[in-house]
Write a structure and sequence with these properties.
Structural class: mainly beta
Helix content: under 10%
Largest sheet: 22 strands, antiparallel, barrel
Shape: globular
Radius of gyration: 25 Å
Oligomer: single chain
Distance between the termini: 47 Å
Mean pLDDT: 88
Number of helices: 6
Strand content: over 45%
């Protein structure tokens, strides 16, 4: 068994504290720089931005019939995030509980659906785990993120089997051609022996734009053996071959290690258990305008992920185990867009038509090596397999002169293992003339292809005859803009019918497998959201969510996650989140409040089948404060001369300011008050 990586000693921690303090002081004294993300050049687009995720083509948000939420740079930066979780949890319809503190597992539940029903992407390249499991947002850093888009509702017709309930797309902030080079530095320190360092280089040449970032996080956490360590690097490059041809290259790597302190009921007494993840994404995309009406957008990406979970023997637990998993994905996507105006088609009532056609091909591979040793004996196992999918998708969008938008899509999936699938969706919206109001609606279905473990013999007898899990949804919504699109109110009601859910049972089913499509659930919910831009230097966002969930069928096995007639686990009946920021000139102060109601969970410290328990609700308050000591080269202390650097920002962040005791996931206590202070700089 491989030896565990050593944690930092107390002396090394003291040395790092001293070096960190010197670096922090030097940045302040010598006029370093740092500033929040730049304001958008067109303020009116703040609440009506350009989105690419909903249609695979750049469109104004108010012209998209689907439900989309966009996190722009100003909204993200106002919260001074250390992790992407800090701003994603503000999203309407988003449930994103994290087990314990930083680095703890965090799985997204979008509109009450399953945690592995949402496709996760960086700039359109798939980041979703190849083995079919839910993506862990606990390791997702924020320093490289320029914007994020959440596309809600079944999106399998455009994005395949990982997008049964929606898509989460993160967009890097890349320099523009001709943009002057800049170098940014951020340094923070705070609770739990936490140190964060980040570097960012951004700019452009005559025909290219680029950005590169590197960050490091070290924290000892709030529990014994609760350390977390993360290194993330991202490089993005745009190159314009001509006015009609552009290519983008992207590389993203994330290596993290997290200690596992053990369960709460055992007093967090697990000193030698840890996990390690390394993921890499390499992607390339071209955008070729072959004619005024024809575009070709080919994509290719490679995703690699290896994990290690190890439990070394100790005085409290003499058993040992080790599991190494390697996963990979090779993905090709060939997309063609045909853009025609109503005049070209001879239809005066039509503004434009956008037809999207595409062919995708992907192969996924997974290899697992496991070993264990305990009082009952020891053993080893190996597993290696792959699977493939070929897909054809099409989408048609019509925008009419009277404010009507219609869109429809269909997809055919050919799977080498498991049943082939066909999915579709329809959406429509209508802008009421002269009112700033819009009504919208959508119906569609999405699928989640069974995972490797469910299809094949990974941890027990798999079932190659499984059907894909399926979500059928319908929704209706209303948007209202006020004050020249500086104020927006939205309301959405949705119903999700989730069929053919796959249940696992320790005791094999009658056909000898451990997995069967025997479960069904229903989710009904409503989302209300409010956004305000720059009213007397105030900006605000708020969302209120209600949800009613029920398991409709279980057929006995598969408990306790689904109990017929009972609510689904970790879905609150209601929750709300609100943030308000005050940003006059050099000051930015933000207050964020998140309240969650009681919800059902399971107690996995008890014998199987784990009993269901009620996890009490909570309210968490976070604070963020930053001051631009130097702004646009002018110091707040001496405005008569130019600073040697562009900007310097001092910042303070306090999480859980009221010291609320709660468990976002039952059995994993959240940290108490946490504070972080530091500077950001742009040279």
């Amino acid at each position: 068994m491989q030896g565990i990586s050593r944690k930092p000693t107390r002396s090394s921690i003291r040395i790092k504290k001293a070096l960190f303090a010197v670096w922090l002081a030097a940045l302040i004294l010598f006029g370093g720089a740092g500033v929040a993300c730049a304001q958008s050049g067109e303020e009116e687009l703040y609440l009506d931005p350009i989105t690419v995720t909903a249609t695979r083509t750049p469109e104004r948000l108010s012209d998209v019939a689907d439900s989309v939420e966009v996190f722009g740079p100003e909204r993200i930066d106002s919260l001074l995030p250390g992790d992407a979780l800090d701003f994603l949890s503000e999203g309407a319809g988003v449930i994103l509980p994290q087990a314990s503190g930083r680095g703890g597992q965090a799985r997204l539940v979008l509109r009450g659906s399953e945690s592995n029903f949402t496709s996760v992407m960086i700039d359109g390249f798939k980041l979703t785990f190849p083995d079919g499991s839910a993506y862990d947002f606990g390791h997702l850093s924020s320093e490289w993120v320029g914007a994020a888009e959440i596309l809600k509702g079944p999106q399998s017709p455009l994005y395949g089997s990982d997008a049964a309930s929606g898509v989460m797309n993160f967009l890097p902030d890349v320099g523009k051609p001709g943009e002057a080079p800049s170098f940014a530095v951020r340094a923070r320190g705070g609770s739990g022996d936490t140190f964060e360092e980040a570097f960012r280089f951004k700019g452009g040449t005559a025909r290219s734009g680029y950005a590169a970032s590197l960050s490091r996080l070290d924290t000892e956490g709030h529990l014994p053996n609760d350390g977390y360590y993360r290194t993330v690097g991202t490089v993005a490059l745009d190159h314009f071959l001509s006015a009609k041809a552009k290519v983008r290259f992207l590389y993203h790597a994330n290596r993290n290690r997290y200690d596992i302190p053990g369960p709460a009921h055992a007093g967090y007494t697990e000193p030698n258990k840890y996990g390690r993840n390394t993921e890499q994404l390499i992607g390339a995309r071209a955008h070729l305008k072959l004619s005024p009406w024809l575009e070709y957008v080919p994509r290719i990406s490679v995703y690699l992920r290896d994990t290690l979970d190890e439990n070394k023997p100790d005085a409290l637990d003499p058993s040992a185990s080790k599991t190494e998993t390697d996963g990979s994905r090779l993905h090709f996507d060939n997309q063609v867009n045909i853009r025609l105006t109503g005049k070209q088609l001879g239809l005066t009532a039509l503004r434009n038509s956008i037809s999207t056609l595409g062919v995708e091909w992907e192969t996924e591979d997974i290899a697992i090596e496991s070993a264990y040793e305990n009082s009952f004996g020891s053993g080893e196992s190996e597993y290696d397999s792959d699977r493939r999918a070929t897909s054809i998708y099409a989408q048609q969008q019509f925008r009419f002169q009277g404010g009507i938008t219609l869109a429809g899509g269909v997809r055919l999936d050919d799977f080498d293992v498991g049943e082939d699938e066909t999915t579709g969706k329809l959406s429509a919206s209508y802008k009421i003339p002269g009112t700033g109001a819009r009504i919208r609606g959508a119906v569609g279905e999405g699928i989640k292809r069974p995972s490797f473990a469910e299809l094949l013999d990974v941890y027990g007898p798999g079932n190659p005859n499984l059907k894909s899990e399926r979500q059928r949804s319908r929704e209706a919504g209303f948007d209202q803009f006020f004050a020249g699109k500086k104020l927006k109110f939205s309301a959405t009601y949705y119903v999700n019918e989730i069929d053919d859910l796959i249940a696992y049972s320790f005791t094999p089913f009658d056909n000898g497998t451990n997995y069967e499509n025997i479960q069904k659930a229903q989710v009904k919910g409503a989302e209300l959201s409010f956004s305000l831009l720059d009213f007397h230097d105030f900006t605000a966002h708020a969302s209120f969510n209600t949800m009613d969930t029920v398991a409709l069928e279980t057929e006995g096995l598969g408990a306790p996650n689904y109990v017929e007639g009972e609510p689904l686990l970790r879905r609150p009946d209601w929750w709300w989140s609100a943030s308000i920021s005050y940003h006059p000139d050099r000051l930015r102060a933000a207050l964020r409040v998140n309240t969650v109601s009681d919800r059902w969970d399971i107690d996995d410290s008890a014998p199987w089948p784990y009993p269901r328990v009620v996890n009490p609700g909570f309210t968490r308050v976070d604070l963020a404060l930053s001051v631009d000591v130097v702004k646009d080269g002018i110091s707040m202390f001496d405005k008569t001369r130019k600073s040697r650097f562009q900007d310097l920002t001092v910042e303070l962040k306090v999480n859980n300011a009221l010291d609320e005791e709660y468990e976002a996931v039952y059995g994993f206590s959240a940290p108490g008050v946490q504070w972080f202070a530091g500077v950001r700089a742009i040279f």
